[in-house]
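Just wondering, does anyone understand what follows?

——
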Amino acid sequence: MVQILKSKEERRPLFQFGSKEVGYAAAFGGLGFAMRSLGIWVPVFGPWGAEPRDVLNFVGPAFSGPFIGAYIQGFISGLASGIPDFWLLGFWTLLAGLSFNYFKRPWYYLALCFDLYVFIPLAWGWYAEFLGILSFWAMLVPIFITNIVYLPVIIIVVEVLRKYGKALRRYL
């Protein structure tokens, strides 16, 4: 029988605010802030681009935990944006952290697919409509195109960190 969810002993506490968790969240959040501040992005569709910061917002909560990742990492990496998107970054880092906390490997990638292909397009579509940037439906096309790029990159980064980072392996 295939076990999808982690047992209670395998899961980490949701509200674990230790020095390692805060350090991982600050490191990934600071790296995301630096990448956004330097303007590092890949154009995908018109003015829309893929940012490495978004990949870090999915990988970071795997090591820092869901709530500390949402509070610290989502907030820090969202500060450099022209539009206030740190609350959206906080929500999807929270969802990514919960998926890494509750699902076993490789099943947490399925939870990340839900986050990438359901939650984020709906949230960004609503947010773009609210700000008057694009209509809801016009926003879904670039979101899906960038998320097709993000998912394999997230899987590669997590698996490389899991394989070569002995200290990080216990979190995944």
